[in-house]
Amino acid sequence: AVVIDASVDSAVYDRLLRERGWRLVAVLDTHIHADHLSRSRALAQREGAELWLPAQNRSRHAFRPVAEGDRIAFGSGALVAWHTPGHTAESTTYVLDDAAAFTGDTLFLRGVGRPDLEGGADGESASRARLLHQSIRRVLALPDAALVLPGHVSEPIPFDGRLLATTVGQIRDNVSLARLTANEFIEAVLDRIPPSPPNHSVIVALNERGEL
User: Rounded distance, CA 33 to CA 205, Å?
Assistant: First the structure.
């Protein structure tokens, strides 16, 4: 098994692994998170699995860097890393056989990531929004039936065994931002950015240190 963007206590994943008789071979993050404390390092240490993070120089703990085109093998399959910057510079999507894309905070079920949490002037947010548009276009070039599985959704969810997923085709049809030109996309995304979370810089700093 592989865990991507571990966001709840590592004991939860431990229980699921034991119940299903799975062996954890890798723990991956799609980017350095600003909205939750990553449990990925703790889970990897608990299970003796390898921790993979997108290549960057911000994390101050040991990890295996992931670059464009890298393959993370598990069982009889493998995830392929696509560098999809925009939400953050290092944001990475993990693609399984062109049938599923684990998009982190790049592409959600009904929206897109925000390009402003890394700070900088308005022009830098606009540049990141342009990269985000390119990244989303790349993901949406997958087949219509390919699943899109984001890192989270915006409302509390039950642990009911149901996938939080949509398809590439449904996003093309139902997410208006996905149909915009680059310039239209940049204007629309920058116009609707909500206030920054009050504690996001603290969360980022802890995730860079790998601390809980």
Answer: 10
Give the pTM: 0.95
**Cα–Cα dist 212/203, whole Å:** 9
Whole-number Å distance between alpha carbons of 101 and 75: 18
Residues 6+ apart with CB under 8 A from 30: 4, 5, 54, 91, 92, 93, 94, 102, 103, 104, 105, 106, 151
Helix (H) or strand (E) holding 171: helix 168-174
Phi/psi of residue 143, nearest 5 degrees: -55, 150
Sign of the C-alpha dihedral computed for residues 86, 87, 88 and 92 taken in this order: negative
The pLDDT tens digits of the residues spanning 36-88 come to: 999 999 999 999 999 999 999 999 999 999 999 999 999 999 999 999 999 99
Tell me how far apart the alpha carbons of residues 184 and 40 are, in angstroms, rounded to a whole number. Answer: 36
Distance separating alpha carbons of residues 136 and 139, to the nearest angstrom:
5
Cα distance between the two ends of the chain: 23
Tokens 């079920």 sit on residue: 109
